[in-house]
Write a structure and sequence with these properties.
Bound molecules: nicotinamide-adenine-dinucleotide, thymidine-5'-diphospho-beta-D-xylose
Radius of gyration: 19 Å
CATH architecture: 3-Layer(aba) Sandwich
Number of domains: 1
Largest sheet: 7 strands, parallel
Distance between the termini: 52 Å
Length: about 350
Amino acid sequence: MKLLVTGGAGFIGANYVRMLLERGGDRVVNLDLLTYAGNLENLAGCEDRPDYRFVRGDVRDRALLDRLLAEERIEAVVHFAAESHVDRSIDDPREFLDSNILGTQTLLESARRAGVARFLQVSTDEVYGSLGPTGLFTEDSPLAPNSPYAASKAAADLVCRAYHHTYGFPVLVTRCSNNYGPYQFPEKLIPLMIANALEGRPLPVYGDGRNVRDWLYVRDHCEAVDAVLRRGRPGEVYNVGGNNEMQNIQIVRLLLELLGLDESHITFVKDRPGHDRRYAIDATRIRDELGWAPRHRFREGIRATVDWYLANRAWWEKVRSGAYREYYDRLYGAGGRHTST
Ligand code: NAD
Ligand code: TDX
């Protein structure tokens, strides 16, 4: 298939592009704006393949999209591109609404006009809001996003829904829980904690550390996206989860254990405003309809992830320099939102 992957230089997108190229049989055009989160080093070794092309550009650039879709005779779009970090959305929501909502609509419109046969919107469990101590999100759970990031993703999902309902455009939506694995930008919990631990910095746990996330190895998410893209029912939403609920503090302790460090490195800091307490996914639909299930056990996946960050120190040291330092100091430094409690 001839695929346009957006956001393919980011964490999940790069893992997805790598998976497709490993497997072979598709042509992959990767459109990415290379924001702070996009990094072509995530795709090192792919550049010269005849079945791959990188284009730097914005999903809000309609003229570019029209040209690219026609020129490459694109048959399917997998839309990863987005502003993805909740803390940044709390600091400055505007770019999230712009990129995530208008970006999705621009891409939908261009793809519809070009007669694209499948359009997959990569969404998140955060659109459902927060759970209490029990229960799971199903595809029928009401949308109740709590952060500007989550609101922007929910809005984009609704625009996708409208394009299917109004124009019959073959849109599919996946809503996945928290991913972890190689190439994740070290602003997110797991790589941030690993990098801080390796640099001898404190590990900043928000609030009481008992917020729960359902962690899924990135490769399992990529396989779910691909299954839905090729075999899912247009107009449908598919939840994707690891059936692996953990409190943040458990994750941080486990990382310290794997790194051979003690708990003195943990520091509890001021909570994230509006911090969702618990996410948990019911992934029955994708399992029953498409036969998808996670293939990586958490213990193995997290060990592989720690090993990857140990072996790729140059990768994360580079992305943590420059502009990242300013961001980190603003949020976690003296007077920042996440100062020690
Ligand atoms: P990321 O921040 O690592 O990567 C995002 C990529 O999109 C970057 O390469 C960036 O340059 C690119 N991008 C941003 N705005 C763009 C624009 N306007 N035009 C073109 N490219 C643009 O994000 P990620 O963690 O890989 O997440 C990818 C997608 O998966 C997002 O849509 C996110 O909402 C969703 N998702 C992420 C998770 C998770 O745990 N990380 C879980 C569920 C869903
Ligand atoms: O320094 C930290 N300390 C901390 O305690 C950071 C960065 C996070 N946390 C907590 C907040 C969350 O409860 O860890 C948990 C995970 O935080 P993030 O890695 O920021 O992820 P989350 O907010 O859960 O959102 C992620 O999963 C869903 C992705 O960033 C989203 O793109 C995805 O949609």
